[in-house]
């Protein structure tokens, strides 16, 4: 009768102590090998062959491997006894886009505010420092070469009223920019105040304006 290995099934010569196929000791039975393992490793059903042992061992190893796989971090995982780097831990993390959007909105708002302030201070029509401002609005007694030419009124809607012997409405329009006053008079109005663009010099109390053209004094306006 042949000396068959109870583990791998290889037939060995009579009197062999170790299996020539798998190296297992031939005088051990499968029951002896199983008893040497921890009780937690003993399967529910007693294996009848080496193939049964392999199947149960692989099944246990798979469960343990999956448990370890789930318990490890996202960047380092253990799979089948090997450490697997699934992601570069030194790689920079993606920044949230929320902060970038907020920063862009803040910049846009700041730019809009600055533009509005500049337009308010230096803009054309209605600018506080360089354009049409409230300092021009109101009624002014006009004098030209020491002769009174009546009263001119610059309205807030940039229309002009004139009063000499009678009041005339909407005889023209006015605008101001960089200390220059432009009067556009309706040619059918027949008023004494000449139209044109004038360089304006204000008195210290802003109650009197000297209007010049090409450096020559043309008119003097006094606030009424």
Short description:
The chain is α+β, with helices and mostly antiparallel strands and 224 residues long. It has helices at residues 30-35, 50-71, 97-122, and strands at residues 3-4, 11-12, 76-79, 82-85, 138-144, 147-154, 159-163, 167-177, 180-185, 196-202, 208-213, 216-223.
Question: How would you characterize this protein structure?
Answer:
This protein is an alpha+beta fold. The chain has three domains: 3-85, no CATH class; 94-123; 138-223, Pilot protein MxiM (Lipocalin, Beta Barrel), CATH 2.40.128. It is 24% helix and 31% strand. It has three helices and twelve strands, in the order E-E-H-H-E-E-H-E-E-E-E-E-E-E-E. It has an eight-stranded antiparallel β-barrel. A two-stranded antiparallel ribbon has the order 1-2. Strands 3-4 form a two-stranded antiparallel sheet. A hairpin with a 5-residue loop joins strand 10 (196-202) and strand 11. The longest helix is centred in the middle third of the chain and has 26 residues, at 97-122. The chain is rod-shaped, with a radius of gyration of 52 Å. The N and C termini lie far apart (140 Å). The model is unreliable at 60-67, 73-80 and 124-132 (pLDDT under 50).
Q: What order do the helices and strands come in, and which of them pair?
A:
Blueprint: E1 3-4, E2 11-12, H1 30-35, H2 50-71, E3 76-79, E4 82-85, H3 97-122, E5 138-144, E6 147-154, E7 159-163, E8 167-177, E9 180-185, E10 196-202, E11 208-213, E12 216-223
Antiparallel strand pairs: 1-2, 3-4, 5-6, 5-12, 6-7, 7-8, 8-9, 9-10, 10-11, 11-12
């Amino acid at each position: 009768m042949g000396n068959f290995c109870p583990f791998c099934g290889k037939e060995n010569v009579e009197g062999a102590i170790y299996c020539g196929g798998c190296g297992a000791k031939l005088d051990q039975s499968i029951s002896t090998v199983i008893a040497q393992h921890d009780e937690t490793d003993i399967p529910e059903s007693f294996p009848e062959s080496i193939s049964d042992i392999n199947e149960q061992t692989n099944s246990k190893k798979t469960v343990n491997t999956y448990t370890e796989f789930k318990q490890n971090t996202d960047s380092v995982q253990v799979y089948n006894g090997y450490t697997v780097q699934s992601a570069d831990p030194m790689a920079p993390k993606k920044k949230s886009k929320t902060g970038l959007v907020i920063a862009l909105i803040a910049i846009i708002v700041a730019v809009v505010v600055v533009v509005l302030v500049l337009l308010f201070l230096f803009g054309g029509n209605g600018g506080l420092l360089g354009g049409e401002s409230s300092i021009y609005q109101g009624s002014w007694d006009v004098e030209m070469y020491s002769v009174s030419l009546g009263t001119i009124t610059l309205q807030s809607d940039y229309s002009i009223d004139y009063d000499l012997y009678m009041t005339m409405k909407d005889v023209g329009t006015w605008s101001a920019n960089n200390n220059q006053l432009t009067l556009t008079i309706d040619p059918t109005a027949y008023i004494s105040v000449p139209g044109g663009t004038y360089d304006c010099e204000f008195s210290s109390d802003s109650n009197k304006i000297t209007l010049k053209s090409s450096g020559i004094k043309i008119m003097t306006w006094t606030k009424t």
